[in-house]
Write a structure and sequence with these properties.
This protein is an alpha+beta fold and 386 residues long. 59% of the residues lie in helices and 19% in strands. It contains twelve helices and six strands. The protein has a six-stranded antiparallel beta sheet, with no helix packed on it. A hairpin with a 3-residue loop joins strand 2 and strand 3.
Amino acid sequence: MSKTNFAGIFGISVMDRYIFTQLLMPFLFGVGAFSSIVLAIGSLFDLVRQVAEAGLPITVAIEVMALKMPQFVVYSFPMSLLLTGMMTYGKFSSDSEIIAFRSCGVSIYRLILPALILSTIVTGITFFFNELLVPTSSQRATTTLTRALKQDKPTFKKDNIVQPEYKIVERDGKKEQVLVRLFYAEKFDGKTMTGLTILDRSQADKGLSQILNAQSAIWDSDKNTWDFSNGTIYLIAPDASYRNIVTFKHQMLQLPQSPFELAALDNKNPDEMSVGESMDYLDQIQMTGDRKKILSVAVTIQRKLAFPFVCIVFGLIGSAMGIRPQRSGKATSFGVSVLMIFGYYLMMFIFGALGQAEIISPFLAGWLPNFIGLAIGGWLVAQAAK
């Protein structure tokens, strides 16, 4: 079977191969250029300052840069597709190749199809990077830098540990979040908690059912139980009176969390998690009832889901802008790309803030910049096709 016939089976025409070839080099140029810019802004300057002022070893600085590189490359993908469309189709336009294509009956929509296919492929690559490479490498970069600067922070609270536990109940056909248990400890030394008070509302429809006070408690990891010492249990009747009072020297109880889970510092950064990890984290903080934190993580998740599709948005806009008659070089295309990217990220910041303020939903906060970009790109293509 000949090469031409093989290409025909997959619908790859000579025109498609030609356009793909012309798209490839500007895309690689854009990835290199924008990755370098993002690297310099996002990490390089700070690492140089750490080397000069804090004595950070140069080898560690290089390792941190290498670990952060996947994140910078991901950021460069949409920017590169925007630049690629403007440069490639701008060259076609300035060389009158657009006129030649159209004289052969090729529509504008058919001309930009290879750019959209390339954008879709890069969208899939961006998902792969964001889910498998970026979270792991970013976490390792943060850990490596922190240890090198001897800035290790405690992983748990030592004083005034408060941990509420919630569950979802259905009342009058509506789902509501209600408190089922409130845990408090005065001190934690990494092994023993002291000065404990636990309010139990596990029977949420009956209100407070018991109060436990204990001098100390130790976690038995083998049995997944708590060993409370020198305490009192107050059993509460439905009319809020004391039904019974029980004192004890040792009492084994099963609670759903270990002391390190109860005392864990909230140092997690959703930007360094995959979408799946972020959703699990959202389930955890929903139990705390911290509305501000819940909205922040929910907006971050939608932004993570929406970001790869920016590749398609920028690929469409870049191709539509490039195909319009113009005489612009690489420098002009690069400058226009930077301005448009700045505008997109400004929209993303504004809509993210609106989502966290509950003015719009987290879904709209993450996806509106894409919807607006698609509308603009569609309008530009329609205008170019006239």
